[in-house]
Amino acid sequence: MKSATSTILGVVIIVGACGGAVQVAPDASSEDGDTSEAGLDSSSDWAPDALDAAPPLDSGACNALVQLGDPIDITLTTAPVPAPQGGDVIAGTYVLTAINDYGTSSGTKPVGLRATLDITGTTMQYVDDEPSQATFRGTIAFTTSGADISQSQSCPAPATASEAYTATNSELRLQSVVGPHDTVEYVYAKK
């Protein structure tokens, strides 16, 4: 599954493969904000089925970031989801170091996702890829409030998302609820 966000910062947060670095939903609402005609569940901030059905986007013009990340697989765990702490998002370059799926299963799901984020001020650029998938790039503006990070993607296509997060001087963690029993956490280390 290719999303348009880790955490934007999912992807990059908004965006990534298999739920990605940052996960973002395409702006599928009508002018009055109704998402019912778009097939999105209005009780959810993100609808992966809508992303799976979307045609592939040419994201090459969004940025020219060099991919610095190593391939990462998803760790499935039944452990409790860590409480997001918020914090100051520090400018710099980050690479994806872990994807933790807190749910009802244990083990590893091989995906080989690589992701790199570059944060300057309240703008995040990302590049992510996985085997047999096209490289995906995006540009996102973000704001934080408490332990929530709101993301507005401008390239390759308009999209919005909101995730829980924890930021330290050396790490950024983005958490996306992806189902009734699953929260996926994308862990990025500052280079």
General description of the model:
With 191 residues, the protein is mostly beta strands. It has a single domain (25-29, 36-190), classed as Lipocalin, CATH 2.40.128.50. The protein is 3% helix and 45% strand. It is built from 1 helix and 10 strands. The chain has one helix spanning 48-53, and strands at 25-26, 72-77, 92-102, 107-120, 123-129, 136-145, 148-155, 159-167, 171-179, 182-190. Strands 1, 2, 3, 4, 5, 6, 7, 8, 9 and 10 form a 10-stranded mixed beta sheet that branches. Strand 6 (136-145) and strand 7 form a beta hairpin. The longest helix has 6 residues, at 48-53. The chain is globular. The model is unreliable at 1-9 and 11-56 (pLDDT under 50).
Q: Which descriptors apply to this entry?
A:
191 residues; mainly beta; Lipocalin; 3% helix; disordered N terminus
What would a concise description of this structure say?
The chain has one helix spanning 48-53, and strands at residues 25-26, 72-77, 92-102, 107-120, 123-129, 136-145, 148-155, 159-167, 171-179, 182-190. It is mainly beta. It is globular.
Layout of helices and strands, plus pairs?
Blueprint: E1 25-26, H1 48-53, E2 72-77, E3 92-102, E4 107-120, E5 123-129, E6 136-145, E7 148-155, E8 159-167, E9 171-179, E10 182-190
Parallel strand pairs: 2-3
Antiparallel strand pairs: 1-8, 2-4, 3-4, 3-10, 4-5, 5-6, 6-7, 7-8, 8-9, 9-10
